[in-house]
Amino acid sequence: MRNFRVFISDVARKPPFIMPFIGVAHILWLLWAIWGNRYFPIMSMPWLQVIWLIAYIICWVAACDLRKWGALGYILLTLLNVSLYLLIKDVYHRDMYVSNLFLIDGMFSFFLLYFFKIFH
Fold first, then answer.
1. How far is CA 8 from CA 20, 46, 104, in A?
2. Shortest CA distance to 76 belongs to which of 92, 94, 99, 43?
3. SS3 for the chain, per residue?
4. Most buried among 6, 43, 76, 101, by the most CB within 10 A?
5. Residue 26, exposed/middle/buried by CB under 10 A (0-12, 13-18, 19+)?
6. Please, which pLDDT band fits residue 91 given cuts at 50, 70 and 90?
7. Residue 101: which of 36, 68, 59, 52 has the closest Cα?
8. What angle do CA 85, 75, 10 make, to 5 degrees?
9. In whole angstroms, what is the distance from residue 26 CA to residue 20 CA?
10. Which of 23, 30, 18 is nearest to 7 (CA)?
11. Is the pTM here over 0.90, yes or no?
12. Helix 48-64 crosses helix 4-13 at what angle (to 10 degrees)?
């Protein structure tokens, strides 16, 4: 079992160069989403964006640790977002249920697929 310092070192050094920076961008976006939702009750609909971001961050950190389940989870979350975007016809509901970053997450998913051979 690794301690936290070794885990952070592995997450920062093992993956390709850009992946830790994308993880930091996800965390910054999460903080921005929390700050934007600070006036809404905790379990209200706008907080669904925060839940999406937490799921993306968990999968991305696992992918930065070169875990195959992290990369697959990130790709599946992106596929779920794209499916919701295509299936929900009402624009208001689409904005509520779909992650704000699903197009950018699609690009990151292709990035993960490009480096998929290095995951174990």
1. 10, 31, 24
2. 99
3. CCCHHHHHHHHHHCCCCCHHHHHHHHHHHHHHHHHHCCCCCCCCHHHHHHHHHHHHHHHHHHHHCCCHHHHHHHHHHHHHHHHHHHHCCCHHHHHHHCCCCHHHHHHHHHHHHHCHHHCC
4. 101
5. buried
6. confident
7. 52
8. 140
9. 10
10. 23
11. yes
12. 80
Token pair of 29, please? 């976006």
Whole-number Å distance between alpha carbons of 74 and 102: 11
Are 28 and 19 spatial neighbours (Cβ–Cβ below 8 Å)?
no
Look-up of token digits 């700050």: 35
Q: Which two tokens stand for residue 57?
A: 């961050």
Q: Residues in the chain, how many?
A: 120
**Encoded amino acid at 117, one letter:** K
The amino acid at 119: F
Structural tokens at position 34: 């929390």
